[in-house]
Amino acid sequence: MHNEAFFVVKRGRMKVAFLGLGVMGFPMARHLAVAGHTVRVYNRTPERADLWLAQPELVGCSVSVAQSPSLAAESADIVLMCVGNDQDVREVALEPSTGAVAAMQAGSLFIDHTTASKEVALELDQACSTRSIGFLDAPVSGGQAGAENGALTVMVGGRTSDFERAMPLIECYAKKSALLGSVGAGQLTKMVNQICIAGVLQGLAEGVHFAQSAGLDVSQVVDVISQGAAQSWQMENRADTMSKDEFEFGFAVDWMRKDLQIALQTGRALEARLPLTALVDQFYADVQQQGGGRWDTSSLLRRLTPPLDT
Q: Is residue 190 annotated as a catalytic residue, yes or no?
C-alpha cells in the first residue's frame, strides 16, 4: 500500500481540487501541482486564481481554474479546502447549487484545512457521509512561511483509512501531520495551538517592552535567553521584527481573533477555564481599534509602546 501511494505522488495520478487560494492555500495548491498531481483550483476572487495559474513553477504542470466549487470538485479524487471561517466553509462546500460536496463522486475524499469550529466539521462530515464521501478536518499551523516552504503542521480528525489516503497529498506541504481522533479532533487541537500562541506572544511582547524600557539591546537579550527555557518559535521568528516595530506581514490579528473566539466559545461549552486567552483576545481588540487588524499577531507590543517614529 505504501508503494502504491508513493507511485501516485511521483507520477501525479490523482485528480485534485483545491478551494481557496489565500496566503495558505495559494502555496499549498502549488506544492500539489509541482508534485505531479492534476490540480484544478477555485477562488472566489477570480483574479487570485489567474495569478495562481500564472506562477512560473507551474509551467508544464497539469493545472486549471474552475468557475465554481462544484465545477472544481467534479471527478476529483480528493477535494481540499482552505477558506476563512465557518460561513465560508458552508458557502463553498455545502451551498446546494454550487457547493463542492454535491458535485463530488462517491468514494472520493474531502479535506478541510480551514481553521473553523468543531460544529462545522461535524456538519461537513455528515454531508459527506450521506454521499459516501470520506472527510477529514485538518487545520494547519506554520503560517505563510510554513506553507511556502512545505513545512506546515497538520492536525487531523477523522477515520484512519481516510487519513492514510490523504497522506500522499499532505506530505507535499507538511513536515508533520497526525491523526488526533475522530472528526472534530483536528479543530480542537488547533484551538489548543492558538491558545498557546496567544499566551506566548503576550509574554514576548512584555519581555521586549521591558528590555527596551531598560535600555537593553533586544537582539543581544534574545540571543542569550533563546538558548534557555524561554525559547520559543515566536521568540526566534518575531522578537527581532517586534523590536523594529515591523508588523506589516504574517498572520493577521483579525484572523487570530476569529480563532480565539472559536476557542473561547468552545471552552465555555466544555467548562474549560481560559482566563489568559480571554485577556489576550481583548488585547487584540485594542490592536484592532488602533487600526491593526491586518498587522501580524506579534503587534501586541503596540499596546505597550508607541511606534518608533512617534
A: yes
